[in-house]
Design goal:
Elements lengths: L1 E5 L7 E4 L9 E11 L1 H8 L9 E2 L3 E9 L11 E4 L2 E2 L5 H4 L11 E2 L11 E5 L3 E3 L6 H7 L2 H12 L6 E5 L3 H12 L3 E6 L2 H9 L4 E4 L4 H8 L5 E6 L4 H10 E9 L11 H5 L4 E4 L5 H12 L7 E5 L3 H9 L6 E5 L1
Parallel strand pairs: 11-12, 11-14, 12-13, 14-15, 15-16, 17-18
Antiparallel strand pairs: 1-2, 1-4, 3-5, 3-9, 3-18, 5-6, 6-10, 7-8
Helix pairs in contact: 4-5, 4-10, 7-8
Bound molecules: zinc ion (2 copies).
């Protein structure tokens, strides 16, 4: 079968033929319908994150149809339309039992990080990682929800966003556009920041109250939009030195800066600057399986829109470079 594979940092992704995977006990084999192209893939290619092995098939945002089930699988069946929770939690360890399966201590698999991902015609995952997709939701949209909207739901939970609060979404890629909508859903006032004017227009369409040009003075614009008070929450989805400094400058008293994005940069913090206004910095990584279920449900009820562009699987390497160049609006998916 065809697959888009990672061969090491600094080397381009390659389309190649690999053997089709076989489901073991407890596994399902999925015919991939669509797989989302995420900034995380670029982090692998750039060497910021290192998969457990190489070569490995990329793609951790996957939806498709179950083609075959292994032994001991009874909660899903052949023909089921499913989305995959990319970190295949054990559901038995200390973190899992505490409800934090996104921090699982002994994952059964981890798409594109440790096990072959979904930029392929088929993928094998544990049945427990397969979540049924509601009938009214198409599979390409479901694929993009596996990372963008679920990550947004988790970040809003981590930040404990309150109704009526002002929340800056710093960076409006796939996660940011979902975050704008999730913030609306919880009654907050989203302020979107981006360099790309198309993304800002889309953010406004999806519910951003204010949009701010990321090439300008972001902190001043946010102060103006909040009656000088500053934001209650800032989500930094970029994680550079520049956005880190601007994000802190946007933050109001008792405000929370949430790191979701990261880069090679380090960010300098002066404790005094945080202590006096009693601000805090928290981080949010990935998402729980339950948050994927919630995202699929929200989208099926029309409360969460996805912006999806579809591409052939063989175009994967080119689409990755389009994403790097900031030319993808919403989420691109690869379809085998
Ligand atoms: Zn992703
Ligand atoms: Zn676990």
């Amino acid at each position: 079968m065809r697959a888009v594979r990672f061969h090491g940092a600094g080397r381009p992704a390659v389309v190649e033929d690999v053997p089709s995977p076989r489901p073991g006990p407890g596994d399902v084999l999925i015919d991939v319908a669509a797989a989302g192209v995420c900034g995380t893939e670029l982090h692998f290619l750039d060497g910021l994150l290192t998969p457990a092995r190489a070569p490995i098939t990329l793609g951790h945002e996957v939806a498709g149809v179950i083609a075959e089930v292994g032994d001991e699988v009874d909660d899903v069946a052949v023909g089921d339309r499913v989305a995959v929770h990319y970190l295949h939690a054990c559901h038995r360890c200390r973190s899992c039992l505490a409800g934090d399966d996104h921090l699982c201590d002994a994952p059964l698999g981890f798409l594109a990080f440790a096990t072959d991902g979904g930029f392929a015609e088929q993928v094998v995952v544990p049945a427990s990682a397969a979540v049924r997709v509601p009938e009214t939701l198409d599979l390409p949209s479901a694929a993009t929800l596996c990372c963008s909207a679920t990550t947004a739901l988790h970040a809003v939970d981590v930040a404990a966003v309150r109704p009526g609060s002002t929340a800056v979404v710093y960076g409006t890629g796939g996660v940011g556009l979902a975050l704008v909508q999730v913030l609306r859903e919880v009654g907050a006032r989203p302020v979107a920041v981006a360099r790309n004017p198309h993304r800002l227009r889309l953010a406004r369409k999806l519910g951003a109250d204010v949009t701010v040009d990321g090439t300008g003075d972001v902190a001043t614009a946010v102060r103006e939009a909040t009656g000088r008070a500053g934001a209650d929450v800032v989500f930094d989805l970029v994680g550079t030195r520049e956005t880190g400094a601007a994000a802190l400058a946007c933050l109001g008293k008792r405000g929370t800066l949430v790191y979701v994005g990261y880069s090679f940069d380090t960010v300098e913090i002066n404790p005094l600057g945080l202590v006096v206004p009693e601000q805090r910095i928290v981080t949010s990584v990935g998402n729980r399986r339950s948050e994927l279920v919630a995202a699929l449900d929200l989208a099926a009820r029309g409360r969460l829109q996805t912006t999806v562009t579809e591409h052939a699987l063989d175009d994967g390497p080119r689409v990755l470079e389009e994403l790097r160049a900031g030319r993808v609006v919403g989420r691109a998916v690869l379809r085998p």
